[in-house]
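Suppose a colleague, Dr. K., hands you the sequence of a protein chain of 228 amino acids and asks what its three-dimensional shape might be. Before reaching for any lab equipment, you can write down a predicted structure in token form. Begin with the sequence itself:
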Amino acid sequence: MTKNITKQYDDFAEAFSANHGLGENSNNKNRSHFYSLLGDITLRPRAAVLDLACGDGLDANHYRENGFEVVGIDASKELIRIAKENYPGIDFRVGLAEKLPYQAECFDAVFSKYAIMTSKDIQPIFNEAHRVLKVGGYFAYLVTHPFRQYFEKKSVEADYFQQEIVTSNILNNSVSLREPSHTLNEFFSKDFLEKFDIVNYEEAFDPAAERVEGRTYPGYFIVVAKKR
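The predicted structure, expressed as tokens, is then:
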């Protein structure tokens, strides 16, 4: 994740943490959707889980409450500060998804929500998730749907295949993000498919995101994959 992306999250950390669970335009729908798909994963009791780009720690705490040994990492110092204050019993640290400070094959699962797409090049993140997972471990992630990013370019001349920095207004316009656009092919590259078996894929509309021109389109998608 770039320095600019990190600074963004530092700047709006308080606003994000205060608003992501409030009202109809919140992350509650995508969060419950993500959790429901994790219910199909079979993990041993007290399995080691990495919350990749853990934000303010809400998800990591959910995983802990469900019996997992959880650690969390995020590029934002401010979000990690909030996470440590809210959930002092969890190991949170500042770090990059592209260069994880963990040994190979030390986690049973890696979970990530609305984070991977913030990097211009997502393949290094996939490589790192694969490296730290045990064989047969699960990698589940939720990201902004490329179709949504295409509409958020807000131009009749927009090129789906051209990577651009797009602005996403979320959480009832309380937070404004600038992130690089991606294509579906980047998320399902040959390299990814050689490293993981896809267990499940679902996409959905997201009320937490801006609805461009009143159109209905997928705001995010979720992948559950298993390391080969």
